Each structure stands twice: as structure tokens, then as C-alpha cells.
Here is the input.
Amino acid sequence: MSNNIVQSKQPGVLFARYEQAIPVRGCKFSLSHIKDFYREIEKINKKFGESVILGLPRIEEMTDEQWQEHKDFLLEDGFRLTVTIIGWEDQSVYGDTAEIFDDEEIPKPIKSIHFNNITSFSRHAEGREPLNRVSVTIDFEKPSLFDPNPLVSEATQNDGIVNISASDITFFKAAQHSVEKNLLKNKTWYAAIHRNFAYDFGVWFIAMPLAIYFSGYYMNVILPEGSPFDIYRWPLFVYLAGLCLVIYRALTLYAKWAFPVNVLVENHDRALKHRLALGAVIIWLFWQILGTGYDLIVR
Here is the structure.
């Protein structure tokens, strides 16, 4: 999470900007949660719009009534949050009101949700962006089940982010607070498995100790000391340890797929049986540790 104040200096002018990029990761949502967040950002944006409209120069050719209607139209149409909802098969629906989250035509399961206050403003400002802007992406994609990427130490790829850029500290703080209150509080219990170096931590403190333990035990079971093939005992140990690490990597990728970074309730994720399978593997490993430990004590 970065929080920067960007200041550009011109002769006699000091211009301050407040910027923050807030990752949206490890969270569980429902469409009603996202709708509530949308409405809060919409209110914040409307308040910003009112100050912009108030400062517009009067168009002399218009009557008082026409000028008021023009300002009302700009406030209504130029300070909306435009929404794009994308399905898993890349179907898209668009809208600029909160009602889109209740639309029966929403493609499900949903892959991502995007909204911002830039698009509606730009069409009334010759393509310029507003001074106070917010852009939201909530990503529900799953990682690949078998990822060939060797950089498994990196955080699981997810594009969920809220970008806030403002010249008004009130707008900035209000948007920031809304993100923390509506999005970041809904954390999943397993979010840590998707962080940077989670894989490395598991390798050093879980996988390698278990690999050494099981490899040493089964080396003695398969090739007892003093057997005719005694020379192959340590190569077997190395092979078994390597096999354990390969299995750990596969289970890690499986876990990241079965427990995705962000979850949307309405997607009705059917990964329950996979989570049960992972639970069964963990129980089996625990049972094996108890069984082999008892065997070593008895011996």
C-alpha cells in the first residue's frame, strides 16, 4: 500500500496531490457489499461535483432557468460512476447507477468488477480527467491449478486495487475511509497463503522438516542399513526428499486454486470438494507422522 503526496511547482504556484494505491486482496464480498461501497463513493463524488459546478463560469446566452437546468444536467451526468462487470467467459455489462448490481443480466460467475468517476466526467470536459478521481477494480480470478511459473515466492497474481488521486484532502480521506470500511474489513481467514514468501515459509518450516523426517524413515524401511543395496541409501534419501518438495509445491498450487484470493458469494464457488480433499490430505499426513513416530519409539 502506497500513500504519496505529489507536489508540482510552477512559478508562484504550489499544487498538491494526494495519491494512494490500495490493493484489494484476501477479501470476501457479496454484491450488496460492493453496492454499498459504490453508493458511498458516489456520494463523495457528487459532493465533489457540486463544488465543481458551483465554480463554473456563467454562460451569458442562457436564461436563469436554462443555466440552472444545464448545471443540474452536468452534475447528474458528469459525476456518475461508470461500471463494467465482466463474466468468466468475458461477457460484459455496463452501467452508471447502483441498480446494475441488481440486474438479472449480470454474467455469472463474475470475473471482475470495475468502476470509476473518470469516464462520465471526461465526456463533458473535452477528455480531461477530474482533479479528484477514484478507480476501483475487484478481481475474482483464480490462479492456474498447475502454474509452471518458477517464481512461486511471489504473491498470487490478482489485479484487485483502488486508486485514489485527489487535490482535495477531504475527498481523499473520505474515499480512503470508505475503502477501509467497506472492502478491506471482509478478510478471508486463509489470506496469508497468497502473500509474498508464503511458499518459502512453508518450504523451510513445514515441507523440508517433513521431507527430512519421512525420507529418513522410509529410507530405513526400503533399504535397511547393512542391506545388499546399502550404497543406494543416501541417493534414495535425496530422491524422497525432492519428491516431498515436489508434492508440497503441487499441494500449494492446489490450495491457492481451491482458496482463491478474493471471493464473491454470488459466484457460488464449487471448490468445497477440493477443500475437503486438501483437508483429507492434511489429516492423512498428520496420521502418518503419528504412525511413524510411534513406530520409531517402539523400535
Residues 2-187 form one domain. Residues 1-11 have pLDDT under 50 and may be disordered. The chain has two domains: 2-187, 194-298.
